[in-house]
Design a protein that fits this description.
The structure is a single chain. With 151 residues, this protein is mainly beta. It has one domain (2-150): Porin. It contains one helix and eight strands. The protein has an eight-stranded antiparallel β-barrel with strand order 1-2-3-4-5-6-7-8. The longest helix has 14 residues, at 2-15. It is globular.
């Protein structure tokens, strides 16, 4: 099922270049917390592609890799869809949903974010995600800040 979802989103991305808002890559860091897990630092990266839905809206896809820096914690790989509004020429507000693969327990995630374009192709973002474990492990949350470039 995961492969079917990943393949469908990838095909959508490749089939719609004329609707492109643009490709982007970023590095990110933040904090991760959950019941019985404490609060831990994270580091990671993401690559995505946004598609314009008209003057005020957009959708996008993103693949990311994140590592919780606590001893014994594994890295996670996520595929995420974004849907949002262009608040003005520099800002995007969006909701997100996706699936995360981890060694301990896979998870579905939901969240929201804000992306601000700086001078030229550079941007920064803040994002919150809540992870709902699919295998009985505790849920967790993550708040990240990222910097990136879009092209």
């Amino acid at each position: 099922m995961r492969m079917l979802i990943f393949s469908a989103i990838a095909a959508l991305g490749l089939a719609s270049p004329a609707l492109a808002d643009g490709a982007r890559v970023q590095v990110q860091s933040g904090i991760d917390w959950g019941a019985g897990q404490g609060t831990n630092a994270t580091i990671g990266g993401a690559a995505g592609y946004d598609f314009s839905l008209g003057a005020g809206a957009f959708t996008g896809v993103e693949a990311s890799v994140d590592k919780v820096l606590a001893s014994g914690r594994d890295a996670s790989v996520s595929l995420t869809g974004r849907l949002g509004v262009k608040a003005d020429a520099s800002d995007k507000l969006y909701a997100l949903a996706g699936y995360t693969v981890r060694n301990t327990a896979d998870a579905k995630h939901l969240g929201a974010g804000w992306q601000h374009n700086f001078a030229g192709p550079f941007y920064g973002n803040l994002e919150y995600r809540h992870y709902f474990s699919t295998e009985g492990a505790p849920d967790n949350s993550r708040l990240t800040a990222g910097v990136g470039v879009h092209f």
